[in-house]
Amino acid sequence: MKKFLIIANWKLNGDYNFINKNINLIKKKINNSLHFCDLSIAPPYVYLNYINNYLKNTSISLTAQNVDIHLKGSYTGEISINMLKDVGVKYVIIGHSERRIFHHENDNFISKKFILIKNNGLIPVLCIGETEEQKKQNQTEKICIQQINDILKISDINIFNKTIIAYEPVWAIGTGKIANIDEVQKTILFIKKYISSLNIKIAESILFQYGGSINYKNIDIFLKKKDINGFLIGKTSLTTENFIFLIKKTEKIISLLNVS
Ligand code: PGA
User: Fold this and answer.
1) Which numbered atom of ligand 1 lies nearest the CA of 11?
2) Rg (the chain; Cα; Å)
3) Which end of the chain has fewer CB atoms surrounding its CB within 10 Å, N or C?
4) Residue 41: alpha-carbon gap to chain centroid
């Protein structure tokens, strides 16, 4: 069974006070009790190095919220993959709807990032998912496959080996509107089958996450679906006590599922 992976996506939030309190509490309350669930923190760029030092000698890893497609040069304001490696990053989130919407990142640009991350030894977390309008038009599966196919236009299926795909319906992100669990399961299974039709081994190596308004109260039902192997969590990760409760709950439920 794949290990569960929870990524705390802090987005544009946090400061030194928050980090000191949050990471200390997480280290104290959950670091040694994680056996079935991996945890990763995705703070804003400027805090990656500081948090990396905090996380040394723990099982908690570091995720970046973005990366540039260039390795170096005159690209004011950008951060390269090697810089992320220097500060201990393991995963890089790309294709998040907030970057697609507010920074106008298109599928071709996101595909280039995906390939760059993979070819440089880090793990891309590719966010895909439909908007509310697309959902109304029953286009969920079509949109997800299209977003995957854009990567396949410039690379082959092997690029997906041991990567992460986070299914995040755009309308569920930060809105409190949780997606229907059966629909999430159906969509993830559809994506998995599509990738299996190209290469079964690669499909099996991918870790599928769900993201969108997950909190400690609604996480239970998602944990019981075998095709969902983790979560990308925004808002709830900003309230330390609730987040710790969510992690503990996840660890407990997964351990029980593993035994039964
Ligand atoms: P949310 O964010 O948990 O606040 O909905 C999820 C995400 O943006 O990945």
Assistant:
1) 8
2) 17
3) C
4) 10
Q: What is the pLDDT of residues 71-119, one digit of tens each?
A: 999 999 999 999 999 999 999 999 999 999 999 999 999 999 999 999 9
CA distance 28 to 247: 13
**Residue 239 main-chain phi, psi, to 5 deg:** -110, 100
Q: Could you count the other beta carbons within 10 Å of the beta carbon of residue 134?
A: 17
In CATH, the architecture of 4-259 is Alpha-Beta Barrel (3.20)
The tokens of 176 are what?
């409190």
6-54 pLDDT per residue, tens = 999 999 999 999 999 999 999 999 877 889 999 999 999 999 999 999 9
Cβ-contact 179, 169 below 8 angstroms? yes
Residue type, 210: Y
Probe target for ligand 1 pocket from 213, 217, 239, 242, with the most ligand atoms within 8 Å of CB: 213
